Amino acid sequence: MENFVWIFLILLGLGGGALAGYQYKRYLDEKLRKQQELKANSIVQAAQETAHRIELQAKDDALKAQQAVEAESVRRHLELSREEDRLQKRRAELDHRLERLEQREQMINKRQGALDKRVNDVEKLYTQQVAELQRVAQMSVEDARNVLLEDAEKEARSDMARIIRQIEAEAREEGESRARVLIAEAIQRVASDHVAEVTTSVVPLPNEEMKGRIVGRNGRNIRAFEQAAGVDVIVDDTPEAVTVSCFDPVRREVARRSLARLILDGRIHPAHIEKILNDEQRQVERDIVDAGEQAAFDAGVAGLHPEVLKTLGRLKYRTSYGQNQLAHSVEVAKLAAVLAAELGADVEVSKAGALLHDLGKAMDHNTEGTHAMIGAEFAKRYGVPAKVINVIASHHHEVEQESVEAVIAECADAISGARPGARREDLDQYIKRLRALEDIANSYKGVNQSYAIQAGREVRIIVRPDEIDDLASVRLARDISKKIEETMQYPGQIKVTVIRETRAVDYAK
């Protein structure tokens, strides 16, 4: 029984414990549920607050966007209104312009009608005038045209004949000039009895008795002198003077000096003549070398071979048309140096080529060839640079000019030979010819100034632009050239240049 009670009590205790545990578990579950429910409520409340805040922010953003859209709409509406106003104004201006164009078109149509009427009147007047002219002239338009063409043809043929004659005259003048040059060069290098001014020298005498002493007994002295010196001594009726003649200017100079020294010394006999000739020959050779060195110094050309300088010095005793060849060479070198400096060419080559361009004229007749080629060949033998040799050889276009320095030397040579006073020409006649050219030009109406330049080979005329137009300038040049042809005599041709210049001047103040 007791066991049953104990078992019952144990079971009752277990049941009570189980019930108590069950109740406690329910209590815990209920508490956990309440905690979770509170947590869920707090989460829901936080979510609701967040959602409310987001909703308020969204409403605020939407309101701002709406306001911005409304402001943009108002701005665009204003712009559209202004654009519409501009279009209205433009349309009004176009309408006004169209009205003015229509009015102008109407005026133009009226003027066109008046012009058409005037053209018709002019045509009628022209027809009447042509008919009247035909009646007065007693010829038709076709006949008048034929007469005019015949006159024009005659004038053209006259001009053509004049040009042909001018070309022929130029050819003859150039041929004569070239012939004179060739003759002068030949005289310098070959014996001749002509052209006394380049082949003779006059020796003054203190008295007439000296002529007999020069001739000597039976002509012994004069024969000895002529044989030793290689010259001819002319003793004629010229008072107190004898003439020494020789084609070689160096030998002539030696003979002139020797004869003058013999006359001054008074001892004239064959032995003394030979001694004096030898002394003067050496002195002339020294003078030739000194002249060549001085010419090279004056021209500013250095480094030439002594033989080249010696040959260059021989030009001191040679002339061309009365122009000393050594002075001419120095002058050409200086001109070439100036031209080369202005043009940016080689100044040294230009000076050297110009100084030596007539070197061949110092050779005698035993050397064949033109003076340009002879001089170039001689300079080549003594180490003159090839560029300078081309300048020497090409200054008369016998070979092709290979550099601008060759052209410069040729131009300088022409300038030196053609300048006023370089060669023999009467200065008064030259000045009169230039003044006559300017007077002819100044005699025409509308001429402001005129200048004769290039040694009278060109006349430049400056006209007044308000009195002479372009066509009148052409006619003026033609009229002046015809008057020069009719009233003057001159070699070659004269270029007439008419210059018409209009200037507009104002001042900024």
What do you see in this structure?
The chain is mostly helical. It is 70% helix and 7% strand. The chain has helices spanning 2-137, 141-189, 196-199, 209-215, 220-229, 249-265, 270-299, 306-313, 325-343, 347-355, 371-381, 386-393, 404-418, 427-442, 470-487, and strands at residues 200-204, 232-234, 241-245, 319-320, 323-324, 447-453, 458-463, 495-500. It has a 3-stranded antiparallel beta sheet. A 3-stranded mixed beta sheet has the order 6-7-8, covered by helices on one side. The chain has a two-stranded antiparallel sheet with strand order 4-5. A hairpin with a 2-residue loop joins β4 (319-320) and β5. The longest helix is centred in the first third of the chain and has 136 residues, at 2-137. It is elongated and about 220 Å long. The termini are far apart.
